[in-house]
């Protein structure tokens, strides 16, 4: 059965502010997380259009993360592989899909909608009755939920950060009921890995990983508020292109040799070689 969770992440921002802050955060975070041939490589980033949602932006990314996986997943994966992320952003609605060519049974679908409230809409993404029966809701608190120690930085902690430009923060207990402006990111995550013996463990790992990155990313978007506040959409798209070029160069400079080796190992002449 597909594991379905709905994450609700409130931010002390307006919808229009969040649109800019999210793009800035993703571009900067991707560059910071890219090292030693691993990270997020942007393959495509172009305008798109949908008959229902209108004009938007399509992106395709390759997420290189072999060494960051638990040992029990590394044991069944080649040394060099990547997850494919395809995203259609029709703000305030987005659709994101994750697949992996090496693991065809893996599929993650994320539907997101943003609203000007504190997470009070019970069925923001119009789930069916069947989906509602299996859905669990998780309200993330960017200030008071525990973040992994390896990701924690005091200067990015909303309990201590104060914006000089907007005078927002630090966030205190109950801020989601008290602070204005307020908006919420509603994310429904369908994660499936239909392999007997591993399904529950992998699906749970996926959901825990998504929760951690949502918490980290939204904390950073708020803590970096003074760096992106005042940017126009054109400004942040220019910033995004610059950081994407830097990120791709960083990954390709260190992973080129490894990718060639992986390609050689995939040829018929090496079909009998052991895979670590």
UniProtKB/TrEMBL annotation:
Region (Disordered) residue spans: 241-276
Sorted UniProt keywords: Lipid transport, Lipid-binding, Transport
GO MF, one example: phosphatidylinositol binding
SUPFAM superfamilies reported for this sequence: Bet v1-like (SSF55961)
GO cellular component, one term: cytoplasm
InterPro entries found in the cross-reference section: PI_transfer, PI_transfer_N, START-like_dom_sf
The Phosphatidylinositol transfer protein N-terminal domain, residue ranges: 3-244
Leader sequence residues: none
Pfam families, sorted: IP_trans (PF02121)
Family per similarity comment: Belongs to the PtdIns transfer protein family. PI transfer class IIB subfamily.
PANTHER family assigned: CYTOPLASMIC PHOSPHATIDYLINOSITOL TRANSFER PROTEIN 1, PHOSPHATIDYLINOSITOL TRANSFER PROTEIN
Protein name: Cytoplasmic phosphatidylinositol transfer protein 1
Lineage summary: Eukaryota, Metazoa, Ecdysozoa, Arthropoda, Hexapoda
